[in-house]
Amino acid sequence: MFLHEGLGSIAMWKDWPHKLCEQLGFRGLVFSRPGYGGSTPRAADVKWPVDFMQRQAHDVLPALLDVLGIDSAERARMWVIGHSDGGSIALLYAAAFPDALGGVITIAPHVFVEDVSVKAISAATALYEQGDLRARLSRYHADVDSAFYGWNDIWLSSEFRHWNITDLLSSIRCPLLAVQGHDDEYGTMAQIDAIASHLPHAQLAKLPACGHSPPRQCPAVLDAAIGAFVWRVRSTRSSGTNQER
């Protein structure tokens, strides 16, 4: 299951999920979260709450899986791959359902708010309102203002500066790979280092010459890191239990 970034959608993934699933031998589930892509837009007067990512992980994802008829046995084998906000949601889902997940790959996740993130999102506001960002994003969202301002307003709110999910990470028991680019303009290595400090079993992949969007900026390096990690997990499970989750 692929969870897109804060301004993402099904279309913005392009063909990366399909190629990765082919490489890994997985089936894939890709969807646009409410407010994004072709999903139900956010009403103009609705503001995302500070805990919007927790609500996605605790309420929206389980409800989606229920509607799709994905049972508990299938969920226990499922891997979640999340990017940026989607990476944070993946972590929150794994923490909330520690015995019901095959593994997590979190790419450029946020576990607390950094000044660099706020600065980059403020710069995105100017590009959206004065540059060509709105036109570029409008190709991927039925209601582009719903997508942009839902993300932008909560991230730049004073209340959100104190958002922090590091104390929840220790509940995660499934295999976990955390990926970060060295040139990420939206976050530093402190994000995935914090994950490792709370989860000794977590594996880290720090990508050189890569920014906030490894699936677009360095897909070959990212795919190699993910492939090696999944292979190690499969090998460990095969040798330990003679079956793969």
From TrEMBL:
SUPFAM superfamilies the record matches: alpha/beta-Hydrolases
InterPro entries registered for this protein in UniProt: AB_hydrolase_1, AB_hydrolase_fold, AB_hydrolase_sf
GO MF annotations in UniProt: monoacylglycerol lipase activity
GO biological process: acylglycerol catabolic process
Any single Gene Ontology cellular-component annotation: membrane
Signal peptide region: none
Protein name: Benzoate degradation ring-cleavage hydrolase
